[in-house]
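Predict structure. Chain length: 203.
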Amino acid sequence: RHLEEANHLLMNFVSGYPYNRLTGDAYFKLGEIHFIKEDYSNAVWYYRKAISRVYDPQLGPQVSYKEAIAQQKLGRPGKAIDALERIPREHLRGPLAVRIYSFWAKLLRDEGRSPALPALGLYNIYRLWENEGSPPAAPWIIAEAEVDRWLEDWISLPPEEGTGEIKALQKKMKGSPAGIYPRMKLAVHWWEEGAGKKAKPIL
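Prediction complete.
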């Protein structure tokens, strides 16, 4: 009953104030109501409406994260990954960032794709963790030690899509704690290819 009342009030608000600064939050709450009811298709619809109206850079990532979970529950891992990839990474901080990067990495691994980008992002979040309390709990959370192990193993693996993939990651991670991993992977690749002259300047 309470959910239906809240749904009614929120629907009245978004209908009466379609361009209010709180309209995005109202759409997000409508998505949450449908998520609780396990009506994931409508939850996705409202989350997407929320994204088109959100003014708060902290709320936007949360909305896309919930859309990704709903998409995954609908059996659409590709669309879930798309939702996470749309999140501006400069706004990701603290526990929410751990949830997002961990879920993104899990989806990519389940699809047989490289989780390098979210793993590197997660490494940065853990290294820059300050006064955030304990990392969040969720079935897909990747702990700091696991991220470290995975990246160390990743360095020795052959590039899946050639050196262009590594160089793109190197550019995205430039100036961050995780930036050392793409550099090391590229150097290892050149050494194994017998191109030591290319490897030395990287290190």
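Summary: The chain has a mean pLDDT of 88.
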